[in-house]
Design brief:
The protein has about 220 residues and is α+β, with helices and mostly antiparallel strands. The chain folds into two domains: about 55 residues, no CATH class; about 120 residues, no CATH class. The chain is built from six helices and four strands; from the N terminus they run ββββαααααα. The protein has a four-stranded antiparallel sheet with strand order 1-2-3-4, with no helix packed on it. Strand 2 and strand 3 form a beta hairpin. The radius of gyration is 23 Å and the shape is flat. The mean pLDDT is about 90.
């Protein structure tokens, strides 16, 4: 399985924690496993139907992970400013419970990043995305998810999403996830990639210095 905490794959072995309740649906039980990479627990709730197991069929009536509440998304780099990282984490954390709340958090964060980093004229989120896309300043892997935010969110039919980005409003299927995809791409482009490039150049300059050559400027 893929660990919902750190997203690393591992061979899962589930340990039964015993029956916690019984009703007309079956026997409710807790099972758990631990990721060998991040050492964090994954806990699942099962409902097992009473009676002998039928060959070729599952006697599990219900199976669902109860911890963590939702799978992790992009592991956050230390280079991402905390003011954006916090909004991103909260948008991910509430996704399983409220796609509306997650979308509101991520829309607001998207707008704040664009206003700080994209050198745009401030206005409605729809118009700000349009400015950035028309400027061709973003690579395709960032521009495409940002375009999807407007399309999947159906901003034309719901302009308040563009006008009041932090409002908790009804969402289209997949909208909250599309917002998080775009947010991840923006965070990577504006904060992670530049720092990685800076670190690579620093290492290269150290090698040039050792070789008695002029560093890159």
């Amino acid at each position: 399985m893929k660990c919902p905490h750190c997203l690393e794959g591992f061979h899962d072995t589930w340990e039964a924690r015993g029956e916690i309740a019984k009703d007309k649906d079956g026997s409710w039980r807790i099972v758990s496993t631990k990721c060998p990479a991040c050492k964090r627990a994954v806990i699942k709730l099962l409902c097992v139907i009473p009676g002998p197991k039928i060959p070729g069929c599952s006697n599990v009536f219900f199976s669902g992970i109860v911890y963590p509440r939702s799978p992790s998304r992009m592991p956050l780099s230390e280079h991402i400013p905390e003011r954006f990282a916090q909004d991103y984490r909260e948008a991910c954390q509430v996704l399983a419970d409220s796609a509306k709340a997650s979308a509101a958090l991520s829309r607001s964060c998207l707008q704040n990043i664009l206003r700080e980093k994209a050198n745009i004229k401030q206005g409605k989120l729809y118009d700000e995305i349009e400015q950035v896309l028309n400027s061709k300043q973003l690579p395709t892997y960032v521009a495409d998810p940002l375009h999807d935010v407007r399309v999947v969110g159906n901003f034309a039919a719901h302009p308040i999403k563009s006008e009041k980005t932090g409002e908790v409003l009804d969402v289209e299927p997949g909208e909250a996830e599309a917002n998080l995809d775009a947010l991840e791409a923006l965070l990577d482009h504006y904060f992670v990639k530049p720092k990685e490039q800076e670190d690579r150049r620093k290492k290269l300059n150290e090698k040039l210095k050792e070789a008695g050559k002029e560093p890159l400027t």
